[in-house]
Write the structure tokens for this entry.
Amino acid sequence: MLFKKNFVIFVLAAVLSTTTAIPVSTGTREISANEEERVGRSLVVDMKRHGDSQERGRALSTRRHGDSQERGDSRVRLATHTETAGSEGIVVLASLFASMAIAKSEVTVAPVLLLDVTETAKNVEEVTVVFVLLLADTETVGNEEKVAPALLPVSTETAKSEVTVVPVSLFDVMETAKNVEEVKVVLVLLLADTETAGSEETVAPVLLLDVTVTVKSAEEVTVVLVLLLADMETVGSEVTVAPLDLDDGSADVHLARLRGWGFNMLRFPITWEALEHEGPGNYDYEFMDYTVRVLRKCKEYGFKVYIDPHQDTWSRFSGGSGAPFWTLAACGINPRNITSTQAAIIHSEYPIPSATTPASLPAMVWSTNYGRLLSQTIFTLFFAGRDFAPKCIIDGKNIQDYLQEHYIEAMGQMADRIRDAGDLLEECVIGWDSMNEPFEGFCGWEDLNANPTKQGSTLKKGSSPTPAQSFRLGMGTAQTVDNWNFGTFGPSKNGSVTIDPNGDKIWADPDIEDTDGIHPRWGWQRDSGWKLGTCIWAQHGVWDLETGDILRPDYFRYLPKARKPIDGRVLSEEEELSSPNTPVVEFVEHYWRSHWRLFAIRIRASHPEAIMFIQPPVFAAPPPIEETGVDGLNGRCAFAGHYYDGLTLITRHWNWFNADALGVIRGRYSSPIQAVKIGERAIRKSLQEQLGILKSDTLTLGPYPTIIGEIGTPFDMDDKRSYGWTDDGKYRGDYSRQERALDASLNGADGPNAINYTIWTYCPDSTHQWGDGWNMEDLSLWSADDIGLTGRTPTIGDLLKQQGDEASMYGMGRDDSQAVLLRKKVEASQGRIFRQPSAADSSALSLATLGPLEVWSEITSRWKENPFDFLTDGARAVKAFARPWPTKVVGKPSNIQFDIASTSFKLTVLVRSEDKLNEEGIDDKDLATEVYVPLVHFAHPRLLPSRENEQTPSEDDTLDGGEVRIAPSPSEISTSTTPTITNASVGWEGLTEQPDVLDIEVTVSAGRWSVQGQTIKWWYEVPQVGEVDREYTMEIRRTGGAIKTNESLNYESWFEQLCPDLCPESCCVM
């Protein structure tokens, strides 16, 4: 991270079941493979996702202002000018194309683009003023400065030496005092704070929006924050933000909720940047230790975890997440010109840096970065630099080896820290991904003059340059490129658009390194054969800089080192390219697999029993991998491909038709029109078939389990209809469409597939306005903004009104999204500033961010009284994802059926003689198949709203028993300034053994069963050797019928209702 420990929790809910192919062992004790430890549902905790550059759409790295992009250099070297006259004042404006001049006590401020940093004077005789607004007009009249508002009108009032700050949603205007004896004030962003100490500057980084701490007299120096991704200088300190508070009980609340929903495994994303942001080989061990603390907290709740080294389009500095900033410099990239060359779409700079409207970023347009120059180039260098960029040598190594070695060792250091914790391996952490959604880059590209015409995994939306056009754009030459629209019926070309970089180049200026190629900040030495300032593909003869012509259009199609001579004669370049003996690039086989092997070797050096979750590029089948050896599977593997309903994800609408996208990509149809599916039943069947294809891909690896590594649905459908943003709020809190969409996807994993899945995502700081806080994605299963909308708890705003304290907190209910000033204490510890996050940082991560302790106590007390309320309040489409699920199976689940409308569940289990438990390998001699039964669907009537149960649950009816402690009673509220709650009991977790939690009827074809909390245990006979296989079934229904909610489901579309006879099973256009 650019900021020390600036991270956000992202949670990914998932379902995992290990199969009989994986023996689970601890020491010398082996658990029989016959007991499928279905390490079921999971979530993901992303320690660094905040740092993904588009946090709330307001991030623009000030690193991009300076020529050197050095960490800690907050001064601006691009079109910034500061003049001082006398000692009346000093002003530093650290943004693009801005200048300030101070003459005596008169201040003139030029308009700026977006983000600024401040530099304070080192003595109290100089007064610091910062201007951080978007395209604001400034007029100077005499000695009085007037600033016009930019976008949203708000005022900051100055009264002599005291200041009153009025919060706003996004942008603010400042009003300065009439003379320098009165302190100038700036309100920058939303809900964060900065404190000053004496005359030294202390800057706290923020996730989204900040305010300044103003001084009460000219004897104090005014200090203002930066913004997300801004370079900053602190005096003798570095900054750390730890948004997941492990001490105040808020982490327990989130983990208890997820456990109560039935999830039992976490997919835990960690970015490379989080581990090695300070520079090559400089690891952040404090972050690693904090991660260990979080993992221990997950362990307390019985979660298993597998680590996800996460990335999207390479880095947060290139429109996604993942790699550290210095990797761009290592690849010769100039990040200041990414947007102007359209080498990537960056949220904070969308559509252009001079007129940003980040909230208007189109859905999923960030993923088009995989079709743009930066991602295409860097992923090619990372996976195949030795073959396609042999001139790119740094520190005596090819850039491929340099990047891969640093990436793998950074993750290896994290694995070492987990191992050294002593109590996490196998007890909690069970395995690793190798890289989230790896990308091919240019590898295998057929013709650089054209984009592929067949359907692929890269989205076509907006401008779509060919590689040839991207090369020219990268060197500053204007290009007219195709423009695409993605509508109801998929992508379609809708004309062209001209992109003019105005001479800006994506390639770094040679002056960033000295004459010997040594970088003054990062320390590497670049080989003299690698020239900065020039496209590396031109340097390798792929295209001509003078003419712009592509010289080798199929340069990336073939394996260069595999080309063979004819008749003992060395081939010319032309013969080389046309030789039939030259193999075509197969990215997964030739490049991905070799990286995976190196990664697996390093991880297993720390974690010998690690399960390796195999994840090649999206929709790609895995390659064969050796079973034994230091780089083999060794019986510890799962295939973890990703799947989303692409049409719903991109259009943000649940349609009455869809298409078999995976079938099209795999060549199942001669024409894409054949893949169209009409009607909800047809769509559900198609999704199940597509996930079945991914399950069959696993067989390439061997008899291993399948987990769909990511699956989910957007919740901001139909212009945020469910948030009350349309139709005069008529559909506020109605997530029925999202429920249908998510149920259709998860039903695809059920049926005969019976496979595991990981739902993306659970974000404790999700908001209606900014979604997940990353590139306008909005897939979180829970949002604090939905408290009181999807459950019975009053909204936070209503509770505040009851207490007459509306303006004292950040409202997270539907009517209370206004921002107010929250001030937190900055604590110094071991030379670092540990800043508790503001509500904008993590509105749901800390109890303090919910506002007055009395409000928090009211909410959690209501949750404590009723677990049904706790599990439904703030949840979105909860009936779709809180599903019955076999968490342990003696045998093999052969079919899983669950119907939300009727609340009926059926599990079919195939049991063979080899499934008999090995009693020598287990401690529990009475193991049974265990099925999680969600309270959300099968709650006892006493837990339900009054319309189903007229009696209000009495104190005696609540699940107390001394162990249900998810919140304090009023008498238990701490008098400390830091709110705390009693940790949620591990005994609760939605798995309590208290009676009368569920209202169920259970029917089994054989055996016996019992209910323990939300778990049914089922015992049955296993065939003896020589006996035929047996099939058993279990059916579960709610005695009182399906629980009625506002989100009534109707799985028939208007088309199916009109013509039911035409769509008995499925309907497709042929």
Q: What stands out?
A: The radius of gyration is 29 Å. Residues 412 and 602 are 6 Å apart (CA to CA).
